[in-house]
Amino acid sequence: EVQLLESGGGLVQPGGSLRLSCEASGFIFSNYAMSWVRQVPGKGLEWVSSISASASAIDYADSVKGRITISRDNSKNTLYLQMNSLRVEDTAVYHCAQDVTDYHTYYFGYWGQGTLVTVSS
Amino acid sequence: EIVLTQSPATLSLSPGARATLSCRASQSINNYLAWYQQKPGQPPRLLIYDASNRATGIPARFSGSGSGTDFTLTISSLEPEDFAVYYCQQRDNWPLTFGGGTKVEIK
């Protein structure tokens, strides 16, 4: 059974930093592209970033480019999101998501429950 | 950036009715479109990818169609568990984008 468990969210002041983690199990993590998608409670979905299985290809939404870094450790089956220079508008639940197949479709077949990031003074 | 416009914003239907949800792209995305269902307090669930392929375990009452700029998700006969919010997502071009969602509510 695929499981994705996010952690690292919390309350941070504007300009602060957080590092989110997503621990994966139930599948061969190193074969799958992974992504982060965020959602303001009660609002829609916003793609944040994706990373290929080997980490050779990475993309970011313009809204986070230059402030957020996605990475992965395939030996630890873990996906990361380093978030710097946080803004109030980054407040959201951050979900990690697994590609639906192992050939990089960038459709999201499995999702974690998410971790809430609140940016506020 | 490709903008996905979903309509209607809210669909009020009775159980057993047929639901037709629309997603229109601001430019052609070939057939690179997915549909997700989201219930309160849960993450989204993938229903359809590449416009018409059902994901694993998705009931046959869910079907997708379309290509280019106009796409449709059809639920042939609404079950009580189908009342939820539905999102479309394109992967033809970066950045990946989602539509604003359609809420299917009980009439």
Report on this model:
The complex is a heterodimer of chains A (121) and B (107). Chain A is mainly β. In chain A, 0% of the residues lie in helices and 50% in strands. Chain A has strands at residues 3-7, 10-12, 18-25, 34-39, 45-51, 58-60, 68-73, 78-83, 92-99, 108-111, 115-119. In chain A, the strands form 2 sheets. In chain A, strands 2, 4, 5, 6, 9, 10 and 11 form a 7-stranded mixed sheet that branches. In chain A, strand 7 and strand 8 form a beta hairpin. Chain A is globular and about 40 Å long. By secondary structure, chain B is an all-beta fold. Chain B is 0% helix and 50% strand. Chain B is built from no helices and 11 strands. Chain B has strands at residues 4-7, 10-13, 19-25, 33-38, 45-49, 53-54, 62-67, 70-75, 85-90, 97-98, 102-106. In chain B, strands 2, 4, 5, 6, 9, 10 and 11 form a 7-stranded mixed sheet that branches. Chain B has a 4-stranded antiparallel sheet with strand order 1-3-8-7, with no helix packed on it. Chain B is globular, with a radius of gyration of 13 Å. The chains are: A mainly beta (121), B mainly beta (107).
